[in-house]
Amino acid sequence: MNENPSPTASEFATAEEAEAYDLWFRAKVQRSLDDQRPAAAHEDVMAALRKIIETKRDTNASDPMEN
């Protein structure tokens, strides 16, 4: 068995699937680049996510069906 997959091998079954994915991905990146909303600071995003995680953890800890 070859442990190093070919860098030119496609993960898609057909060339059409690969092309459709490429078009979708490029459009998604372009929409992001074109987005005029202000960027969120990494620290602010991480703080918000930590709060969500803690809330879920607290909710699950008090749920007797989860234990």
Automatic annotation (TrEMBL):
InterPro entries: PaaA2_dom. Pfam families: PaaA2. Residues 16-47 form the Stability determinant domain. This is Stability determinant. It comes from Rugamonas aquatica.
